[in-house]
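Teaching soon. Got one?

===
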Amino acid sequence: MSFFATEQYCAVKGIEFCPKNPKWCAAYKQNPNFFVLKSDNRSRDEGVLVAVSRGLYQLAEMEMPAEVSLAEVGKRVPNGVICLVSSLSFHQLTTQTPHYVWLAVERKARKPKIEYPPVRVFHFSGMAFSNGIVTHRISNQTVQIYDAPKTVIDCFRWRKAVGLDVTLEAAKEYLKRPDASPSVLMKYARLCGVEKLVTPYLEAMTA
Protein backbone atom coordinates (compact mmCIF):
# COMPACT_ATOMS: atom_id res chain seq x y z
CA MET A 1 0.00 0.00 0.00
CA SER A 2 1.39 3.38 -0.95
CA PHE A 3 0.52 6.79 0.44
CA PHE A 4 1.28 9.98 -1.45
CA ALA A 5 1.86 13.30 0.28
CA THR A 6 2.26 16.83 -0.96
CA GLU A 7 5.25 18.99 -0.16
CA GLN A 8 2.97 21.11 2.01
CA TYR A 9 1.95 18.07 4.05
CA CYS A 10 5.60 17.16 4.60
CA ALA A 11 6.42 20.69 5.70
CA VAL A 12 3.62 20.72 8.27
CA LYS A 13 4.55 17.28 9.60
CA GLY A 14 8.28 17.97 9.55
CA ILE A 15 8.92 15.15 7.10
CA GLU A 16 11.88 15.30 4.72
CA PHE A 17 10.62 15.59 1.16
CA CYS A 18 12.61 13.93 -1.62
CA PRO A 19 10.63 13.58 -4.89
CA LYS A 20 13.46 11.90 -6.81
CA ASN A 21 13.74 8.96 -4.45
CA PRO A 22 10.79 8.57 -2.06
CA LYS A 23 12.58 5.83 -0.11
CA TRP A 24 14.98 8.43 1.25
CA CYS A 25 12.29 10.37 3.09
CA ALA A 26 11.95 10.11 6.86
CA ALA A 27 8.38 8.82 6.65
CA TYR A 28 9.46 5.82 4.57
CA LYS A 29 12.12 4.88 7.12
CA GLN A 30 9.47 4.84 9.84
CA ASN A 31 6.90 2.94 7.81
CA PRO A 32 7.63 1.40 4.38
CA ASN A 33 3.90 1.56 3.56
CA PHE A 34 4.18 5.34 3.44
CA PHE A 35 6.32 7.31 1.05
CA VAL A 36 6.38 10.76 -0.40
CA LEU A 37 5.79 11.78 -3.99
CA LYS A 38 4.80 15.08 -5.55
CA SER A 39 1.04 14.88 -6.08
CA ASP A 40 -0.49 16.65 -9.07
CA ASN A 41 -4.02 17.99 -9.22
CA ARG A 42 -4.75 16.13 -12.44
CA SER A 43 -4.33 12.72 -10.80
CA ARG A 44 -6.60 13.79 -7.97
CA ASP A 45 -9.24 15.29 -10.25
CA GLU A 46 -9.28 12.19 -12.47
CA GLY A 47 -9.86 9.97 -9.46
CA VAL A 48 -6.47 8.25 -9.51
CA LEU A 49 -5.74 9.53 -6.02
CA VAL A 50 -8.21 10.00 -3.18
CA ALA A 51 -7.70 12.11 -0.08
CA VAL A 52 -6.98 10.24 3.13
CA SER A 53 -6.59 13.46 5.10
CA ARG A 54 -5.50 17.00 4.28
CA GLY A 55 -2.47 16.78 1.97
CA LEU A 56 -2.31 12.98 2.16
CA TYR A 57 -3.52 10.69 -0.64
CA GLN A 58 -3.73 7.04 -1.58
CA LEU A 59 -4.42 5.19 -4.82
CA ALA A 60 -8.18 5.05 -5.36
CA GLU A 61 -8.11 1.44 -6.56
CA MET A 62 -6.41 0.11 -3.43
CA GLU A 63 -7.82 -0.44 0.06
CA MET A 64 -5.78 0.28 3.14
CA PRO A 65 -4.49 -3.04 4.59
CA ALA A 66 -6.15 -4.02 7.87
CA GLU A 67 -3.03 -3.68 9.99
CA VAL A 68 -2.22 -0.28 8.51
CA SER A 69 -5.79 0.82 9.33
CA LEU A 70 -5.36 -0.28 12.94
CA ALA A 71 -2.05 1.54 13.19
CA GLU A 72 -3.52 4.72 11.71
CA VAL A 73 -6.45 4.69 14.14
CA GLY A 74 -4.11 3.88 17.04
CA LYS A 75 -2.04 6.90 16.12
CA ARG A 76 -4.99 9.27 15.85
CA VAL A 77 -6.88 7.98 18.91
CA PRO A 78 -4.17 6.81 21.33
CA ASN A 79 -6.65 6.40 24.20
CA GLY A 80 -9.02 4.28 22.10
CA VAL A 81 -9.03 0.48 22.03
CA ILE A 82 -9.58 -1.73 18.98
CA CYS A 83 -12.63 -3.85 19.78
CA LEU A 84 -15.36 -6.19 18.61
CA VAL A 85 -15.09 -7.34 14.96
CA SER A 86 -11.75 -5.62 14.33
CA SER A 87 -10.34 -7.29 17.43
CA LEU A 88 -11.86 -10.63 16.41
CA SER A 89 -10.15 -10.31 13.04
CA PHE A 90 -6.84 -9.41 14.68
CA HIS A 91 -7.07 -12.50 16.92
CA GLN A 92 -8.22 -14.67 13.99
CA LEU A 93 -11.51 -15.53 15.66
CA THR A 94 -13.80 -14.68 12.75
CA THR A 95 -14.18 -15.14 9.02
CA GLN A 96 -15.66 -11.64 8.79
CA THR A 97 -13.68 -8.91 7.04
CA PRO A 98 -14.25 -5.59 8.85
CA HIS A 99 -15.21 -2.78 6.48
CA TYR A 100 -14.25 -0.24 9.11
CA VAL A 101 -12.24 -0.16 12.32
CA TRP A 102 -14.33 -0.96 15.39
CA LEU A 103 -13.09 1.28 18.19
CA ALA A 104 -13.95 1.59 21.88
CA VAL A 105 -13.58 4.89 23.73
CA GLU A 106 -14.51 5.83 27.27
CA ARG A 107 -18.14 6.79 27.74
CA LYS A 108 -17.42 10.45 28.46
CA ALA A 109 -14.87 10.80 25.66
CA ARG A 110 -15.71 12.74 22.53
CA LYS A 111 -16.36 10.76 19.41
CA PRO A 112 -13.16 10.96 17.36
CA LYS A 113 -13.37 12.60 13.94
CA ILE A 114 -11.44 10.51 11.43
CA GLU A 115 -11.94 10.87 7.68
CA TYR A 116 -10.06 7.70 6.80
CA PRO A 117 -9.97 4.82 7.54
CA PRO A 118 -13.69 4.56 8.33
CA VAL A 119 -14.30 3.99 12.04
CA ARG A 120 -17.27 2.71 14.03
CA VAL A 121 -17.12 4.02 17.60
CA PHE A 122 -18.54 2.40 20.73
CA HIS A 123 -18.60 3.94 24.18
CA PHE A 124 -17.50 1.59 26.97
CA SER A 125 -17.56 2.56 30.64
CA GLY A 126 -15.69 1.73 33.83
CA MET A 127 -14.02 -1.66 34.12
CA ALA A 128 -15.66 -2.83 30.91
CA PHE A 129 -13.46 -0.29 29.15
CA SER A 130 -10.23 -0.57 31.15
CA ASN A 131 -9.94 -4.35 31.52
CA GLY A 132 -8.43 -6.72 28.96
CA ILE A 133 -6.38 -4.11 27.08
CA VAL A 134 -3.16 -5.37 25.49
CA THR A 135 -0.66 -3.12 23.72
CA HIS A 136 0.65 -4.26 20.34
CA ARG A 137 3.22 -2.78 17.98
CA ILE A 138 1.82 -2.51 14.45
CA SER A 139 3.64 -0.69 11.62
CA ASN A 140 5.86 1.05 14.19
CA GLN A 141 2.79 2.34 16.01
CA THR A 142 1.52 1.44 19.49
CA VAL A 143 -2.04 0.12 19.24
CA GLN A 144 -4.34 -0.90 22.09
CA ILE A 145 -6.45 -4.00 21.41
CA TYR A 146 -8.66 -6.03 23.72
CA ASP A 147 -7.39 -9.55 24.36
CA ALA A 148 -9.20 -12.52 22.80
CA PRO A 149 -11.46 -13.59 25.71
CA LYS A 150 -12.46 -10.00 26.51
CA THR A 151 -13.33 -9.48 22.85
CA VAL A 152 -15.56 -12.55 22.80
CA ILE A 153 -17.48 -11.31 25.85
CA ASP A 154 -17.75 -7.80 24.42
CA CYS A 155 -19.35 -9.36 21.35
CA PHE A 156 -22.01 -10.98 23.53
CA ARG A 157 -22.62 -7.60 25.14
CA TRP A 158 -22.85 -5.85 21.75
CA ARG A 159 -24.44 -8.81 19.94
CA LYS A 160 -27.03 -6.62 18.19
CA ALA A 161 -24.25 -4.68 16.49
CA VAL A 162 -21.93 -7.64 15.90
CA GLY A 163 -24.49 -10.34 15.20
CA LEU A 164 -25.15 -13.36 17.41
CA ASP A 165 -23.89 -15.73 14.71
CA VAL A 166 -20.54 -13.91 14.56
CA THR A 167 -20.37 -13.89 18.36
CA LEU A 168 -21.00 -17.64 18.68
CA GLU A 169 -18.49 -18.41 15.93
CA ALA A 170 -15.87 -16.38 17.79
CA ALA A 171 -16.61 -18.12 21.10
CA LYS A 172 -16.28 -21.55 19.49
CA GLU A 173 -13.01 -20.60 17.78
CA TYR A 174 -11.60 -19.23 21.01
CA LEU A 175 -12.48 -22.40 22.94
CA LYS A 176 -10.60 -24.51 20.36
CA ARG A 177 -7.34 -22.83 21.29
CA PRO A 178 -4.91 -24.64 23.59
CA ASP A 179 -4.69 -21.57 25.83
CA ALA A 180 -8.46 -21.06 26.01
CA SER A 181 -9.87 -20.49 29.48
CA PRO A 182 -13.61 -20.74 30.18
CA SER A 183 -12.97 -19.28 33.63
CA VAL A 184 -11.43 -16.15 32.08
CA LEU A 185 -14.45 -15.82 29.81
CA MET A 186 -16.75 -15.97 32.82
CA LYS A 187 -14.61 -13.45 34.70
CA TYR A 188 -15.08 -10.98 31.86
CA ALA A 189 -18.78 -11.90 31.58
CA ARG A 190 -19.33 -10.97 35.23
CA LEU A 191 -17.34 -7.77 34.79
CA CYS A 192 -19.41 -6.77 31.75
CA GLY A 193 -22.75 -7.77 33.27
CA VAL A 194 -23.60 -10.55 30.81
CA GLU A 195 -22.96 -13.61 32.99
CA LYS A 196 -26.54 -14.89 32.76
CA LEU A 197 -26.52 -14.51 28.99
CA VAL A 198 -23.15 -16.17 28.42
CA THR A 199 -23.47 -19.10 30.88
CA PRO A 200 -25.87 -21.37 28.88
CA TYR A 201 -23.91 -20.85 25.65
CA LEU A 202 -20.61 -21.59 27.36
CA GLU A 203 -22.00 -24.68 29.13
CA ALA A 204 -23.26 -26.05 25.79
CA MET A 205 -19.91 -25.42 24.08
CA THR A 206 -17.86 -27.05 26.83
CA ALA A 207 -20.16 -30.01 27.56
